[in-house]
Amino acid sequence: MNQDTTSRRRLLGKRAAAVILAGTSLLVAGSALAQGQMRGDGADNSGSDKFKAESEPGFFAKSFDYVKHNSYFRIGVLHLQYYGTSSPLRVENAQGLAAQAFGPGKSEIAHTGSSTGNTTTLGGTYGLYLPLTGHHLAMEVTLAPPLKLDFEVSKNAIDESLSPTTKNGIPTGVPPLGRSIGTLKTLPPNFTIVYRPWVDTIIQPYIGVGAMYLYTYDTDVSNTVLNAYGNEPTLNLTKPVACVGQLGADFQLPNNMFITADVKYVGCATVEAKVNNIVVNSPTLSPTVGPIDVGTVSSSNDFKAVLYQFSFGMHF
């Protein structure tokens, strides 16, 4: 009984091992066949497909190649001309005698305003033709070195005292501010989408629309009247996004070179300007009562400017 049982167990074990080995062989063969069919039936084809996959450029390589052969750059003279308007200057948080002169809370000073100066600098533009548009549409970004602009008052604020007398008619002797209040730096990148109706002519006019970020930084109040007590007043400006309208024309030259005349209108934005911590000297009153704490002077500027650019460019 024991020998028969042992023999049967050995026979069953051998049969089971054979079945498992056969099944494993079938699975391996089936898997290999399936993979071969997915690659194109056969080892030779799989090697060919592998070669094609390795030789075909990838997404980034194709993108780099497109940019390399469908972009342009131009650099030249850029002039910013400011045409914006401003609300009257507003005095806020005046204290002591200043409150008597300007009144409590907010008060406007008639026939006054603020603006920024004009400047000329270098400007560069990078353009990329959009795919599937036959070079009729392009995306452009224009950059310039940091621009240092004057922040100025306008109208009566230039040559008339903002507070000639108190409400009781007592002369203050506070002098006019003059034109310049201080300086600011700006780095206004602008992006536009440009349409060229003709791309095979010597003269190629275009029109564009886009946006500009009115980014300002490194402000400084240098006006002597506002700095009479060394109180370090500060200039703060909001940083809105403005709309851009663009007109221009490329004049084609040999060897993929060209010259461009370009005009951009920048608008549709309001910049809030505030000069804080203003303390002024009243020659007739300060010897008795000390400095006059004006507080904050602000204005709302309807930003409008035109960028004129004349530049030399090259197609890549």
Helices and strands in order:
Elements: H1 2-39, H2 43-55, H3 59-69, E1 71-82, E2 85-86, E3 89-92, H4 97-102, E4 107-109, E5 112-116, E6 119-129, E7 137-143, E8 147-155, H5 156-159, E9 180-186, E10 190-195, E11 203-213, E12 216-221, E13 234-237, E14 241-252, E15 257-280, H6 286-289, E16 292-315
Antiparallel strand pairs: 1-6, 1-16, 2-16, 3-4, 3-16, 5-8, 6-7, 7-10, 8-9, 9-12, 10-11, 11-14, 13-15, 14-15, 15-16
Question: Please, could you describe this protein's structure?
Answer:
The chain is α+β, with helices and mostly antiparallel strands and 316 residues long. It is built from six helices and 16 strands. The protein has helices at 2-39, 43-55, 59-69, 97-102, 156-159, 286-289; strands at 71-82, 85-86, 89-92, 107-109, 112-116, 119-129, 137-143, 147-155, 180-186, 190-195, 203-213, 216-221, 234-237, 241-252, 257-280, 292-315. The strands form two sheets. It has an eight-stranded antiparallel barrel with strand order 1-6-7-10-11-14-15-16. Strand 6 and strand 7 (137-143) form a beta hairpin. The longest helix is centred in the first third of the chain and has 38 residues, at 2-39. The chain is elongated, with a radius of gyration of 37 Å. Keywords: Signal. Residues 1-34 form the signal peptide. InterPro entries: OMP/PagP_B-barrel (IPR011250), OMPW (IPR005618), TAT_signal (IPR006311).
